[in-house]
């Protein structure tokens, strides 16, 4: 427990936390009542921006209607105050309403087939619906006139209560969510959903959790804001407020706690101070500010400061998440097959529109076997691999892993059964360093094997990002990730593509060695016959979406049709 806590909280964090707590405690002694009220407001808006950041900045879930959740929390507190209901009950009501709506929106907008823009449209509709609801349900909300919420604790009391709740919420969420396995998974799905899925991370569930946490924090911020703002009217959950919080976060910088509070603080305090002077020009100013930030400082003020002080690359995209494992117990991933094939496909057919690409493939792969799929361009090799991996659902036929029918199972579930994947274009986390890529893969691994020499050169590479590696190294990194994750079956699509001859042969030897050492089953699509000869126990030749012939390299090479159609021998 203590060790886990130590892993999550470094000395620097502890100092920053103590510093923040001391500064917040000292503020009432240093500030007059008006600035103190402004600071209180900035804190609750900062918490709101922090809430939005969990969805948008951390997990990449777009929401342009987050004020709906903020407004629900504020109305919960305001209605409780107006009707003499215990405040906590009102707050709980607002938070639960926000969670329920977030769940509905998330289930509709984050499904497998939903587009990224679906969430934008749904959250926009939500903010309009909630503010209109508040306008229309006059019996509960007092319509456009709003509800007055009086604070009974004075300026200083309200400030301390607010600061305590804000600090407490941020610390708890940071410690439990952002520094835990969820925070790591947020980073993974935001940076490369394809790779995340093939590490066994469920992207839809992870995004839904991010949205729920985000909505809950935003509603809590709204509830705490109610006595600070004083008058809760429909605009609190409207589109202007939803847009403002986006601007705060963009200005401060996505993916950092400092950015959320800095952006909210600067814009809120600036608005209050400038409000009398610029009046309704404020909205125009916000729009211009947003455009300037997006154009010239897409990483916000925090990004600007970081580039000035040159923070190490490894801290950039990880956003403070702990990418190394936290020692959680491995989920069930039994591929015990009782002697049957570890991977089986029966009568698989796949069409793209009217074009049949796979036309009835049967394949059994034994545990520990190395199978190479060869065939002319367009034969359907990559498509078949994608069907095995769960990226394409076949029109007909079935696929089993270790005796379990996985035909309808998505890629991440197959990954959790031990199915690893390498792509023709290496799929790694480009914005992370090689060492971070490896740490993340290992942390998500189910039975990570003892490190191989292949990983050595990457474990310490922290001075460049994966996107800056040459292709051969990126491919080696992808392989190192897949292997350090610990697959029981590994699907590889042209692992030697783009490599020099020496690198290709070295790669084939490494794969052979890994297969023999770990017992991992390999199914590889490959064009280079030298690699195939080096690697394969069995060669399967595909042509026109069907198996033409299979057997040892010598057997298939002797086949007339293969020699003509594929090996180019007359
Ligand atoms: N997503 C898709 N939508 C439509 N057609 C597709 C799609 N993916 C593949 N195809 C088509 O299916 C056929 C088989 O493609 P596939 O990539 O599986 O062949 P391949 O044997 O792997 O070829 P190569 O060796 O060139 O990679 C091709 O004609 C290709 O254009």
UniProtKB/TrEMBL annotation:
The name this protein goes by in its record: Branched-chain amino acid transport system permease protein
Pfam families: ABC_tran, BPD_transp_2
Organism: Blastococcus tunisiensis
Main location: membrane
Family matches, as Gene3D superfamilies: P-loop containing nucleotide triphosphate hydrolases
Cellular component GO terms held in the UniProt record: plasma membrane
Keyword Cell division: no
Residue ranges of every copy of the ABC transporter domain listed in the record: 343-569
MF terms (GO), sorted A to Z: ATP binding; ATP hydrolysis activity; branched-chain amino acid transmembrane transporter activity
Membrane-spanning ranges: 12-32, 38-56, 63-81, 87-108, 115-138, 158-178, 208-233, 245-269, 281-298
SUPFAM superfamilies, alphabetized: P-loop containing nucleoside triphosphate hydrolases
């Amino acid at each position: 427990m203590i060790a886990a806590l130590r892993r999550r909280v470094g000395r620097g964090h502890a100092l920053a936390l103590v510093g923040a707590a001391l500064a917040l405690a000292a503020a009432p002694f240093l500030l007059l009542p008006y600035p103190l009220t402004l600071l209180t407001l900035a804190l609750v808006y900062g918490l709101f921006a922090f809430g939005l950041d969990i969805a948008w900045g951390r997990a990449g879930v777009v929401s342009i209607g987050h004020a709906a959740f903020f407004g629900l929390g504020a109305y919960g507190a305001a209605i409780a105050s107006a009707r003499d209901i215990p405040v906590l009950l009102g707050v709980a009501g607002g938070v639960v309403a926000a969670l329920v709506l977030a769940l509905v929106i998330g289930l509709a907008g984050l499904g497998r087939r939903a587009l990224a823009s679906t969430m934008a449209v749904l959250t926009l509709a939500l903010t309009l619906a909630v503010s209109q609801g508040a306008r229309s349900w006059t019996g509960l909300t007092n319509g456009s006139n709003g509800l007055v919420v009086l604070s009974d604790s004075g300026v200083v009391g309200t400030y301390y209560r607010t600061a305590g709740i804000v600090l407490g919420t941020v610390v708890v969420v940071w410690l439990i969510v952002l520094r835990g396995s969820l925070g790591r998974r947020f980073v993974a799905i935001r940076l490369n959903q394809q790779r995340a899925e093939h590490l066994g991370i469920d992207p839809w569930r992870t995004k839904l959790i991010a949205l729920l946490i985000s909505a809950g924090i935003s509603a809590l911020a709204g509830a705490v804001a109610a006595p600070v703002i004083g008058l809760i009217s429909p605009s609190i959950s409207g589109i202007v407020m939803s847009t403002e919080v986006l601007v705060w976060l963009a200005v401060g910088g996505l993916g950092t706690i400092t950015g959320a509070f800095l952006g909210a603080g600067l814009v809120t305090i600036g608005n209050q101070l400038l409000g009398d002077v610029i009046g309704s020009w404020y909205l125009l100013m916000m729009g211009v500010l947003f455009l300037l930030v997006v154009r010239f400082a897409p990483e916000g003020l925090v990004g600007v400061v970081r580039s000035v002080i040159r923070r190490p690359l490894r801290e950039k995209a990880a956003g403070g998440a702990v990418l190394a494992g936290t020692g959680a117990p491995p989920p069930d991933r039994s591929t015990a097959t009782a002697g049957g094939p570890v991977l089986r496909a029966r009568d698989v057919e796949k069409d793209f529109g009217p074009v049949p690409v796979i036309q009835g493939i049967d394949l059994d792969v034994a545990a520990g076997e190395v199978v190479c799929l060869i065939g002319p361009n367009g034969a359907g090799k990559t498509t078949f691999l994608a069907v095995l991996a769960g990226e394409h659902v076949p029109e007909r036929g079935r696929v089993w892993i270790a005796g379990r029918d996985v035909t309808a199972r998505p890629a991440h579930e197959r990954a959790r059964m031990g199915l690893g994947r390498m792509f023709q274009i290496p799929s790694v986390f480009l914005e992370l360093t090689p060492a971070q890529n490896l740490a993340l893969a290992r942390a998500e691994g189910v039975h990570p094997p003892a490190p191989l020499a292949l990983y050595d050169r990457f474990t310490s590479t922290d001075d460049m990002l994966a996107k800056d590696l040459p292709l051969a190294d990126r491919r080696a990194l992808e392989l190192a990730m897949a292997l350090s994750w610990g697959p029981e079956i590994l699907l590889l699509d042209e692992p030697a593509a783009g490599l020099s001859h020496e690198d290709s042969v070295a790669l084939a030897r490494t794969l052979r060695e890994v297969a023999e050492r770990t017992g991992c089953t390999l199914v590889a699509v490959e064009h280079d016959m030298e690699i195939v000869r080096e690697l394969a126990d069995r060669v399967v030749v595909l042509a026109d979406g069907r198996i033409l012939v299979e057997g040892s390299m010598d057997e298939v090479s002797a086949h007339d049709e293969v020699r003509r159609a594929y090996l180019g021998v007359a």
